[in-house]
Amino acid sequence: MFSSKESFQKAFLKKLEMTYGKSFSESTVRDQYHTLGNMVREYISSNWIATNERNRNSNTKQVYYLSIEFLLGRLLGQNLLNLGIRDVVEQGLGELGISIEDMEEVEADAGLGNGGLGRLAACFLDSLASTNLPGHGFGIRYKHGLFEQKIVDGFQVELPEQWLRHENSWEVRKSDQAVEVGFWGEIESYCERGRLQFRHIDGETITAVPYDIPIIGFSNETVNTLRLWNAEPSSFPIYKDVMEYKRETEAVSEFLYPDDTHDDGKILRLKQQYFLVSASLQNIVNSHRKTYGTLLNFHEKVAIQINDTHPVLAIPELMRILLDEEKIGWDEAWSITTQTISYTNHTTLSEALEKWPVHIFKPLLPRIFMIIEEVNERYCKELWERYPGDWTKIEHMAIIAHGLVKMAHLAIVGSYQVNGVAKIHTEILKEREMKDFYEVYPEKFSNKTNGITHRRWLLKANSQLSSLISETIGDEWVQHPQLLSRLNEYAYDNSFKERLEYVKKEKKLALAQIIKEKNGIVIDEHSIFDVHVKRLHAYKRQLLNVLHIMYLYNRLKEDSNFSIHPRTFIFGAKASPGYYYAKKVIKLINSLADKVNNDPQTSHLLKVIFLENYRVSLAEKVFPAADVSEQISTASKEASGTGNMKFMMNGALTVGTLDGANVEICEEIGEHNMFLFGLKAEEVLHYNRNGGYRSYDYYHHDKRIKQVMEQLINGFFPHSYDSFEPIYDSLLMQNDEYYVLRDFASYVMAHEQINEAYQNKPKWFEMSTINIAQSGYFSSDRTIKEYADHIWNIKPTNRVQHS
Ligand SMILES: *Cc1c(COP(=O)(O)O)cnc(C)c1O
């Protein structure tokens, strides 16, 4: 049906009629979108089945990626692209007068994630399928993804996100594979064949029903699976109100927690974590048992990656199944478990390390808690043998201590591999945050620098740039992204660079059009598009960017000799609803936008735009249009960052600190091809340890800082007279925890360099070309290969065998 545009058109019109009982002329774009979506899903169904069969029958090891978040975005466009049928469909629809872009806009983002961690999981799925690896995702089918952000009077307002309001063409409900997950209740012990056994009684069960989403490989026949669990009521406990039970049950897959850094200590969150883990493990075990009839070889045939500590209960859950259901002895069960599970750490922020109070944990998950207690006891005994008498150390490293269960400690002890997500992050883990553990288990630790799928972030998001690249160096880079390096020699080719500039201009015009529609502001496509998009967090320092813009504005107002190349500062960021400070910064950005955009004296040189509701589909329009990428976290705080890679791959130049994967970006392109500034991680860590930083000194000794700081509280922003006092206080009274004032001067200089560099277009696009050429390393295909080779020990399966 996709072999030619004629046969596609025929099939499409027929399907539309049959599904909606309408003629084409009566149909809406939504009808048309769902028709096409369903056609694509049906089209891949035989490959999906074949991939599953291949996995079942080939006895090859399978990888399961467990993640509380999957930030997929839209699927239609990527699926058409990966299947190689985008052109046929576009032409076929075009002749019917339908624009494929309009159709794609109908699809709601699958926004089941907060930011980088969830998007990484989505990029990994694409890379697993596209490199023919037998790797699948397990997550939760939240009814509401990350909230929809509206800006009202400059404030963030959160609306419940509704991606399932209309039918979802991509999911298939598999009721027959539902499993039961047990909470609460008591643990009963009994004796069986001379061994003490345990069973869970009087618990409350929730049914986990899988919804499968096909993950379609690029230009191969692989279709892997993302399985999302839906929470539904099962057998009703009689003593409970049925409606209340139903509500409580469904709440488990109702909302994604809108926070990726704070442990908010919500019992529902722990329920979600166990729900995901237990359903997934039961499912994996069941299918393994079906194939092999035993779990003794489980670790040889299954690798489970846990994305941060949210799914860490996979460790005690696998133990529970092996001990209580399979009746395997402790030592063997532990050996199987610790050869199956590996753990990715995503942060060194101590407030983000999950710790659960025992008084919450133990009644909710009584058997899991018992198992963790036993793991802890045996592990502490080992520590005692290694460090006899050193109670402080043992207490510090314990899994359960002071009434808390420490999830990261459980993850390290129960995994065979622990990885950080960028070089500097892994080094900080080994040398500081997890030093004690690194001493005991040095062989477990390794680095796997994050990546992004170039198929979404270049091929799909920027087809114009992709075409230019392919016309210049051939298209082998699509299969082997490191071949983008062939572009290096074109860094000095003026005709190439003029074409690159032209593509950038087109993408800037497209974004300017969106901004005009959404924000009602006309921006100059000749201005430098300076973009800061990511979750709003103090450590990501959107505030540093804001203070710099205020400084530029002041200079322009006061110094008639001062001029700059026109600059458009573009922000996009959601703040966690309970994160007071972050919301203040959003209000500040919007107040600043009001101020500078409406000043006729400066508005031709300086504009500030806040893009509402930053998400994957918007991100795809932003990265290609960026000239400058803001990656300005306090050094040592950003584990990796992946936004930085998307910008680089689209030819933006980075202004950044040596933090996270900025370090590897710098290694790839050299520091003369980016704008580095600010404290180094070492220096930040030194300040943190030994003190010696006084923000007050910077306030007093730098007139520029003093002025912008005072403007936060002196009525410079009309109508928000005292609303920025908390920001002012955080910088001065609380000594500026993120070294914003410390890095201010250095940041101003970096921006002066940017302003100057942009005057020399051939030089600018030389740098831009080198960024693109060196971005292949950051394809998640490379990252996934490293996981496959060094952690999972799996190889690509051959394509479907045609016999
Ligand atoms: C890539 C991405 C992120 C992560 O951005 P960072 O700059 O690495 O924090 C967050 N949200 C969306 C929608 C993304 O596409």
TrEMBL record:
The keyword Glycosyltransferase applies. CDD domains: GT35_Glycogen_Phosphorylase. It comes from the Bacteria. It comes from Priestia iocasae. Coiled coil: none annotated. Keywords: Carbohydrate metabolism, Glycosyltransferase, Pyridoxal phosphate, Transferase. NCBIfam families: P_ylase. It is an enzyme of class 2 (transferase). It catalyses: [(1->4)-alpha-D-glucosyl](n) + phosphate = [(1->4)-alpha-D-glucosyl](n-1) + alpha-D-glucose 1-phosphate. Allosteric enzyme that catalyzes the rate-limiting step in glycogen catabolism, the phosphorolytic cleavage of glycogen to produce glucose-1-phosphate, and plays a central role in maintaining cellular and organismal glucose homeostasis. Phosphorylase is an important allosteric enzyme in carbohydrate metabolism. Enzymes from different sources differ in their regulatory mechanisms and in their natural substrates. However, all known phosphorylases share catalytic and structural properties. This is Alpha-1,4 glucan phosphorylase. The keyword Nucleus does not apply. PANTHER family: GLYCOGEN PHOSPHORYLASE, GLYCOGEN PHOSPHORYLASE, LIVER FORM.
